[in-house]
Structures are given as C-alpha cells and as structure tokens.
C-alpha cells in the first residue's frame, strides 16, 4: 500500500482534515529504540513499516527485513511505497529466536539504521532477548522494529519495548485507505498520540 497524497486535492484536505498528529511519526521517533508495531485483521503495519524503510533509504542509510516463521512480505507493495528493493536485504530466519540472533548480528555491525523483525502472531520474546535488543538499539542508535499481529489469544509481545504502536487501515474510496497509527506506549513522550496518512492499495489488490 503506497502513500496517496497525490490523489487528494487541497480542497479535500481542507474539507476533511485528519484528526491526527502528523509530525511525530518517522525515523527520528524510532531511532535507537526497540519498537513494536502491530495490528489485527485490518492492520496497516506493513504500510507503516514500508514508509519508515523508504525514509531510511532516502537518507542514504540501510535497512534490513528479517522474516520469522510466517513471513508476510509482498515486494510490489513495498516498491509502491518508495522502497528500493535492490537495496533491502531480506533474510528468512525461521524460528523467532534465530530471527532475533540475526537481528543481533546485523545491528552489531553498525551498518543498519533500521532492522525489522517480522515475527507474526506467536511472537512472545523471552525477557533476556528483549533486554539484549533494547541495549543494542541504544548502543548503535538503530531502530529495531518488532512487527507483530494481534488476535484474541496473542496480544502484546514486547514488554520492554520503548514504543508500541497499534495500526489499522480503513477504506475511504475504491483504492484509497486511511492508515492510522495509535501509540499506546512511548517512554520518551506522553503516550496516546496518533498519526495517519492516506494511502492507495497496490494495483490488483483493492
């Protein structure tokens, strides 16, 4: 799903202003932090993460994507969001602890500004693993994103995360969606702030 600012006119924005904070979400907010981004069936997590990866690359820095046991990776969607796929390493690690070890190795190189762990639903991480990731994120000033899915059995997985964001998307037109980010935990700011942007669905998936 890609940003769709070009589909909205100035009149649209004036007549339908978005009731969200738009200047707090971005690389500066997540840099050096262990962050959980999650959502349910109508999640906007992939779109949200794609935007962060694109921002990292536009700044001339590197990002990496690590898949766990249930990878959800759709290259055309990322490309439509501005991600340079040729510059994005994608690692299939399998079991979640192995995925965390891969993240550990990548972050310690200091070559990546953002490392994404796509762990899906069953992503409960041991306390010691979380502690290690928190320390690495701070030491190397790298954003470590834990991408998860919520459902009735598995809810929040990272008790030590510095920032937790719940995401969702809802259709506003045939191929236009409102992607919302709701921050329920933020150790650096007062939690409860939100971000939103208009996006359009990838061709053929609307």
The top level CATH class name = Alpha Beta
One letter per element, helices H and strands E, the order comes to: EHHEHEHEHEHEEEE
Q: Give the rounded overall mean pLDDT.
A: 79
**What is the terminal-to-terminal distance?**
9 Å
Q: Which strands sit side by side, in order, in the main sheet? A: 1-9-8-7-2-6-5-3-4
How does the major sheet shape up? 9 strands, mixed
| 3D shape | globular
Task: State the domain count.
Answer: 1
Number of beta strands? 9
What fraction strand? Answer: 25-35%
* Model regions low in confidence, pLDDT < 50 over at least 5 residues: 4-22
* Tally of helical segments: 6
Structural class: alpha/beta
CATH architecture: 3-Layer(aba) Sandwich
The whole-angstrom Rg is 16 Å
Architecture overview:
The chain is of the alpha/beta class. It has one domain (2-200): Rossmann fold (3-Layer(aba) Sandwich). Helices cover 28% and strands 29% of the residues. It is built from six helices and nine strands. The chain has helices spanning 10-15, 27-30, 45-58, 75-80, 96-108, 127-140, and strands at 2-3, 34-39, 63-67, 90-92, 114-120, 143-149, 163-173, 176-186, 194-200. Strands 1-9-8-7-2-6-5-3-4 form a nine-stranded mixed β-sheet, sandwiched between helices. α4 (75-80) links the parallel β3 (63-67) and β4. The termini are close together.
In terms of topology, how is this protein built?
Elements: E1 2-3, H1 10-15, H2 27-30, E2 34-39, H3 45-58, E3 63-67, H4 75-80, E4 90-92, H5 96-108, E5 114-120, H6 127-140, E6 143-149, E7 163-173, E8 176-186, E9 194-200
Parallel strand pairs: 2-6, 2-7, 3-4, 3-5, 5-6
Antiparallel strand pairs: 1-9, 7-8, 8-9
Helix pairs in contact: 5-6
């Amino acid at each position: 799903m890609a940003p769709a600012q070009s589909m909205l006119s100035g009149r649209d924005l004036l007549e339908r202003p978005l009731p969200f904070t738009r200047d707090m979400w971005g690389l500066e907010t997540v840099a050096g932090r262990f962050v959980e981004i999650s959502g349910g069936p109508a999640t906007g997590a992939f779109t949200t993460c794609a935007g962060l990866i694109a921002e990292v690359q536009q700044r001339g820095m590197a990002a990496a994507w690590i898949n766990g046991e249930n990878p959800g990776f759709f290259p055309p969607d990322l490309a439509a969001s501005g991600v340079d796929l040729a510059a994005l390493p994608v690692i299939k690690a399998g079991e979640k602890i192995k995925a965390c070890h891969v993240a550990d190795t990548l972050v310690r190189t200091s070559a990546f500004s953002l490392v994404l762990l796509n762990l899906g639903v069953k992503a409960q991480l041991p306390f010691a693993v979380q502690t290690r990731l928190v320390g690495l994120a701070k030491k190397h000033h790298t954003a470590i994103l834990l991408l998860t899915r919520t459902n009735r059995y598995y809810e929040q997985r990272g008790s030590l995360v510095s920032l937790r964001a719940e995401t969702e998307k809802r259709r506003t037109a045939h191929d236009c969606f409102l992607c919302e980010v709701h921050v329920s935990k933020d150790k650096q700011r007062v939690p409860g702030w939100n971000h939103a942007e208009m996006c359009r669905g990838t061709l053929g998936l609307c």
